[in-house]
Design a protein that fits this description.
Elements: H1 2-19, E1 23-24, E2 43-50, E3 55-63, E4 66-73, H2 82-96, H3 108-124, E5 144-150, E6 173-179, E7 184-190, H4 199-213, H5 225-241, E8 259-263, E9 266-269, H6 273-284, E10 289-292, E11 307-309, H7 314-318, H8 325-336, H9 342-361, E12 367-368, E13 374-376, H10 382-389, E14 399-401, E15 404-411, E16 417-424, E17 429-433, E18 436-439, H11 448-455, E19 461-462, H12 471-478, E20 488-496, E21 516-519, H13 530-533, H14 535-546, E22 549-554, H15 555-564, H16 572-582, H17 595-605, E23 609-612, H18 615-622, H19 626-642, E24 663-676, E25 679-680, E26 686-688, E27 694-700, E28 705-706, H20 719-740
Parallel strand pairs: 1-2, 8-17, 9-10, 9-18, 10-14, 18-27, 19-24, 25-28
Antiparallel strand pairs: 2-3, 3-4, 5-6, 6-7, 11-13, 12-13, 15-16, 16-17, 20-24, 21-22, 22-24, 23-24, 26-27
Helix pairs in contact: 2-3, 6-20, 8-9, 9-20, 18-19
Length: 742
């Protein structure tokens, strides 16, 4: 009897062990494991990985060694970008029977998360799959002309587009697509409410690629990602009307395996303000120059900026300014307490007037500002295009390579820098040999990993360019470069949210009126008026100390902001004072209108806003320590009642009542233009190694080059652009001198 029972137990245990193989939590070698017994059981595997804004969960179903189903879910991923990867990549995995698929252009973070999660699920379950090559599916359409619509960078609720030259109001772009039974014949994009300078590269590069390769799986134009995605969505909408199967429209484009080689005097990596000026300066000094730019356009952040510092320039002198470079140097040193590279700062400021005159000679239209220092250029692509079309590219010895990403330096056998390696967007490899290299790639604001490594957080909303991803800094490090003593986020004057786009709408102004702000524990952490009176200095620094914070207000404030805007919270006299004394931005004072409810609901869906009938319940929903939070609230309510802030001495005009239910809380984080600090350089823009000795032939300019800033950012408008242009000119001059003296 005992022997029979033992046999039964052994059989049951064996069956249970066999069944344990069918579940797992998330690397796919593409090979079949010949030592693993075949199984006919259905296996469901699930794992997750960090996407752009949160976890992406991937579920794989496997039957008889084949992927029969893959789903991906990421509730916080941007629908128009990451959402496309969540939809398309799982289908590709099923088609190829593999987690080894190409990322979707423009949705890199989400794509990589899907792939990582799928590989992890397979690895944890000890499962390998045999990768197959899918058959290219023929497109099938009902012949005719179809029109699809979609929004790109801006939608009907966005507020900021008009500042960059878009039509107001914003309307969806139209894609008029002509097809025959199996081919896209033509695409015309019209009704474009996108930023000038950003939509043209999409029309010039991506639209022809769609027709050439007969797929929407073409590369988005780097630097114009949201516009690219809008065009693709509009074309997709038209093609679906024509009867297309959506999944068949995104066949990946095979990459080129060609290699190109160039020889020149100087190669400049990056075609933003600093790189463009460096290239033109070197060219006019007699050097042959190649500019390598990863995006589809020139200008970088400089096309979005409105001015630069120019003490001692002819334009300022003619306007009656007596501010000198010495005056500004004294102001900067007093501001940063000597934490910047004093010699570099002095060199930049001494150069600034001459550089301003040089830019005017090269077509820049400038208007002196009342501060006697900053010259206003206005936003726009034209000023940079002019430098290339009318000057730099007039020389047959100069070359501009767009959509070409430099990824590493080239070295000779003695570890001397001799050029750069790059990859074109179509996959073509490029080797550029040069006597000197200037790195000007704009810092690392678009690289979450580097932000975490060097600034301690990636919880920022990037209002700058995602293409500024630290390429130049990492290339310099490979040559033994040292980093500046401080690498910090360049925080904007308005806050945002790391998961929800407040930046293009009204909610980014919620901390711009002195309303109560609490950290994630429910504690006050600053004098909130600083976010209005000194937004780039004390305000930016204070919100960075907590990283994430909540703005608290009541129904009265909600209604006033909706109907009258922020100025409705103050008297007319107070409003005029804030405008004159603290440059309270007029664009932030418009009534929020219908956008108020729209934005609050978006934030609430993302877990970044809540409302409640009691303050206690509001704190609970926001995740505060309720006891400590209520103690804080009671203190603050007494300050409002008594008209005296006993904690941070906030001006009584900013003690806005919080007494009418329901109550609201909106979570915010810093928004950043990019980063400050980078490669250690000297006053000649030469890259320094860890012994602070120049690395022969290697220079840096703009936001790749550290030493100009302490922290926080200077309050003088135009400092970053002034640094970009002047460091670029100095780098171009010094690199040319170097190659001539070799």
């Amino acid at each position: 009897m005992k022997k029979a029972l033992l046999i039964v137990l052994v059989l049951v245990l064996s069956l249970n062990l066999a069944g344990c193989q069918q579940t797992s939590t998330g690397t796919d070698s593409g090979q079949v494991d010949s030592n693993k017994p075949e199984t006919t059981e259905k296996q469901v595997l699930t794992s997750s990985a960090q996407g752009f804004a949160g976890d992406v969960e991937v579920t794989l179903t496997i039957e008889n060694g084949k992927l029969t189903s893959v789903t991906a879910k990421g509730d916080k991923e941007t629908p128009e970008i990451g959402g496309k990867a969540l939809e398309i990549l799982p289908a590709r995995m099923v088609e190829t029977n593999s987690a080894e698929v190409d990322v979707m252009s423009g949705a890199t973070y989400t794509s990589e998360a899907i792939i990582e999660a799928a590989k992890k699920a397979l690895s944890d379950a000890n499962i390998t799959l045999e990768k197959t090559e899918p058959e290219k599916k023929a497109l099938k359409f009902t012949p005719g002309t179809y029109v699809g619509e979609a929004y790109g960078k801006w939608d009907q609720y966005s507020k900021e587009g008009f500042r960059f030259g878009t039509p107001n109001p914003v309307t969806p772009m139209k894609a008029t697509v002509v097809v025959d039974s199996d081919r896209i014949v033509s695409i015309d994009i019209s009704n474009i409410s996108e930023t000038p300078g950003f939509y043209e590269p999409v029309i010039n590069y991506m639209v022809p690629d769609i027709i050439k390769y007969q797929t929407l799986g073409v590369d988005a134009v780097s630097g114009c990602t949201l516009t690219s995605k809008g065009v693709i969505q509009a074309v997709e909408n038209a093609l679906v009307q024509a009867g297309a199967n959506k999944a068949d429209l995104y066949t990946p484009v095979e990459k080129s395996k060609e290699t190109e080689e160039y020889h020149t005097d100087i190669v400049v990596v990056g075609a933003g303000g600093s790189g463009s000026v460096a290239a033109l300066t070197a060219s006019e000094a007699g050097a042959k120059v190649i500019v390598v730019e990863k995006t589809g356009k020139t200008g970088g952040m400089s096309v979005l900026s409105t001015g630069f510092i120019a003490p001692g320039s002819k334009a300022q002198k003619d306007n009656g300014s007596t501010v000198t470079a010495k005056d500004l140097f004294d102001e900067f040193v007093n501001y940063n307490y000597g934490t910047a590279n004093n010699l570099l700062v002095k060199t930049i400021l001494d150069k600034a007037g001459e550089t301003a005159d040089w830019l005017v000679e090269h077509g820049y239209q400038v208007k002196p500002s009342p501060n006697g220092v900053t010259l206003d250029t206005g936003k726009g692509q034209d000023k940079i295009d002019n430098l290339y079309n009318n000057y730099f590219l007039k020389s047959k010895d100069n070359i501009l390579l767009l959509r070409t990403k430099a990824d590493k330096l080239l070295f000779d056998e003695n570890k001397k820098v001799i050029g750069v390696h790059a990859v074109k967007q179509d996959g073509t490899e490029v080797n550029i040999y040069a006597d000197a290299v200037i790195l000007a790639t704009g810092g690392f604001g678009g690289n979450k990993e580097m932000l975490r490594q060097y600034t301690g957080s990636d919880r920022y909303w990037l209002s700058g360019l995602e293409a500024s991803s630290g390429d130049g800094i990492n290339m310099a490090l490979s040559a033994g470069a040292d980093l500046s003593t401080e690498l910090v986020p360049h925080i904007t004057e308005f806050a945002a949210n790391a998961d929800v786009n407040y930046n293009d709408y009204y909610f980014k102004y919620l901390n711009y009126a002195g309303l109560l702000q609490l950290d994630t524990n429910g504690h006050r952490f600053m004098n909130e008026e600083w976010c209005l009176t000194q937004p780039l200095a004390k305000g930016a620094s204070s919100i960075r100390t907590v990283g994430s914070f909540w703005v608290i207000f009541d129904q009265n404030t909600y209604d006033i902001i909706k109907e009258k805007g922020l100025s409705g919270l103050f008297t007319e006299e107070q409003t005029e004072y804030l405008k004159k004394a603290h440059n309270w931005r007029a664009r932030a004072l418009d009534p929020f209108g219908d956008s108020m409810e729209y934005e609050f609901n978006r934030a609430k869906e993302a877990g970044a806003a809540c409302s409640a009938d009691t303050l206690e319940e509001l704190g609970r929903l926001a995740g505060f320590n309720v006891e400590e939070y209520m103690e804080q609230m009671n203190r603050y309510l007494s300050y409002i009642e008594n008209g005296v802030d006993e904690e941070f001495n906030k001006d009584p005009m900013f003690l806005i009542p919080i007494d009418k239910a329901p109550y609201y809380a909106v979570r915010m984080e810093p928004a950043i233009f990019g980063t400050l600090g980078g490669i250690r350089i000297d006053e000649k823009m030469r890259v320094l190694n860890e012994d602070l000795k120049p690395i022969d032939g290697l220079y840096a300019a703009g936001q790749d080059a550290g030493g100009m800033y302490g922290y926080p950012y200077y309050e003088t408008p135009g400092t970053t652009q002034g640094y970009a242009y002047n460091s670029g000119r100095i780098a171009g001059e010094q690199a040319t001198t170097y190659i001539k003296n070799k």
